[in-house]
Amino acid sequence: MTDNTRLRIAIQKKGRLSDESKKLLKACGLKINMKGESLIAHVENAPIDLLRVRDDDIPGLIMDGVCDLGVVGENVLEEELLTRQRAGEAADYVPLQKLDFGGCRLSLAVDKDFDYQGPQSLAGKRIATTYPELLRRFFDEKGIEFDACLLSGSVEVAPRAGLADAICDLVSTGATLEANGLVETDVIYRSQARLIRRSGDFNAEKQALLDKLLTRMQGVMQAKE
Ligand code: ATP
Ligand code: ZN
């Protein structure tokens, strides 16, 4: 059985959010004992465990109440929320602080030779993405039909590979798009990392620990401003 008395925080194991997530928790005074590839890292000076997982798993772990806190990109969070809502599943969580890292945008991009006149130019076209629900919301609001091509990686090569007419992917500097002969046309969602918490009550000890952690986190964030 897992020890339910310790506060469980889900963070990305490896990727764009993992270093900043660890740095933030360390700046809050947590002494993290992280050994190699292990799924769980214990905090030595507080009853806290870190769960190191893929970022895509973090919203679900919070919405299912398996972890107490999570650090995740709003893009992944919103996609999971829309997916669960469509399936009629519970999707509760409590948004806490927005964090000052992981900034990016989910954008449409087309081949630089595509005669793009606005989203209507993509009517009936195939669009490759890892975020089908966010993409669908954007086009549904405009009443435009499209075909989705779901890829969990290498989205930017889909047009050149003949798999899609356009892409909807995360962009920060735009260098990856440019390197693949694509131009960004529309921003459909702006994202940054966020701290989230499961819904429902915590016991008194966990709540006190959470309050202390949040106060420290606010201090850390303010000191950086
Ligand atoms: P995992 O193996 O955990 O599933 P991943 O490959 O899906 O990792 P990363 O590329 O590490 O994910 O990105 C994690 C998050 O970082 C994204 O969901 C997004 O919130 C944020 N991010 C910031 N800038 C970018 C960018 N330029 N491209 C992709 N993600 C970015
Ligand atoms: Zn991921």
Description:
The chain is α/β, with parallel strands linked by helices. 30% of the residues lie in helices and 29% in strands. The protein has six helices and twelve strands. It has helices at 18-27, 58-63, 74-87, 132-142, 175-179, 204-224; strands at 7-12, 32-33, 40-43, 48-53, 69-73, 94-98, 104-111, 126-129, 147-150, 166-171, 182-191, 193-197. It has a seven-stranded mixed β-sheet. Strands 9-8-10-7-11 form a five-stranded mixed β-sheet. Helix 4 (132-142) links the parallel strand 8 and strand 9 (147-150). The longest helix is centred in the C-terminal third of the chain and has 21 residues, at 204-224. The mean pLDDT is 96. The protein binds adenosine-5'-triphosphate and zinc ion. Residues 12, 15-17, 54-56, 73, 75-76, 102, 104, 170-172, 191 line the site of adenosine-5'-triphosphate (ATP).
Secondary-structure content class: alpha/beta
Contiguous runs where pLDDT drops below 50 for at least 5 residues:
none
What's the total number of strands? 12
- Total helical elements: 6
* Averaged pLDDT: 96
Short description:
The chain is of the alpha/beta class. It has helices at residues 18-27, 58-63, 74-87, 132-142, 175-179, 204-224, and strands at residues 7-12, 32-33, 40-43, 48-53, 69-73, 94-98, 104-111, 126-129, 147-150, 166-171, 182-191, 193-197.
Blueprint of the fold:
Elements: E1 7-12, H1 18-27, E2 32-33, E3 40-43, E4 48-53, H2 58-63, E5 69-73, H3 74-87, E6 94-98, E7 104-111, E8 126-129, H4 132-142, E9 147-150, E10 166-171, H5 175-179, E11 182-191, E12 193-197, H6 204-224
Parallel strand pairs: 1-4, 1-5, 8-9, 8-10
Antiparallel strand pairs: 2-3, 3-4, 5-12, 6-12, 7-10, 7-11
The structure holds adenosine-5'-triphosphate and zinc ion.
Adenosine-5'-triphosphate (ATP) binds next to helix 3 and strand 10.
